[in-house]
Specification:
single chain; 2 strands; two-stranded antiparallel sheet
C-alpha cells in the first residue's frame, strides 16, 4: 500500500485524500492514516496551498527519502513478481510435459 500511495502522489501531488482513497480502493480514514504514517516516517510532506475554490488544500510531495523508499519498494516488488513468474512458468512446463506423456 505504501508503494501505491507514493507512486500515485509522485504522479499527481495535488491529488486530494478523497481521490487517493478512491484510487487505492480504501476508506478515507485509512488514506488519512497512511498519509500521516508516511509523513511521520519522513517519506512525504504536505504543503498547504489555496485552490481555485478558495479552500485550503494540500500538495503531497515525496521527500528524497520517500523517493528512495519508492525505488526500493519497486525493486523488491519486481524481484518478488519475477520469482513468482519464473515458478509459474516452470509449473506450466511441467504440466505440459505431463499432458504430453498422458496423451
Amino acid at each position: 500500500m505504501r508503494f501505491k500511495v507514493l507512486h500515485a502522489l509522485q504522479q499527481q501531488p495535488d491529488m486530494n485524500q478523497r481521490q487517493l482513497a478512491e484510487l487505492l480502493g480504501v476508506s478515507l480514514g485509512k488514506t488519512n492514516y497512511l498519509l500521516r504514517a508516511l509523513a511521520e516516517k519522513g517519506l512525504l510532506k504536505a504543503r498547504n496551498f489555496r485552490n481555485s475554490q478558495n479552500k485550503l488544500a494540500y500538495a503531497y510531495l515525496l521527500t528524497p527519502s520517500g523517493i528512495a523508499q519508492k525505488a526500493e519498494l519497486t525493486r523488491s516488488y519486481l524481484e518478488r513478481k519475477t520469482a513468482e513468474f519464473e515458478a509459474l512458468k516452470a509449473e506450466i512446463e511441467r504440466l505440459r510435459a505431463d499432458l504430453a506423456t498422458d496423451a
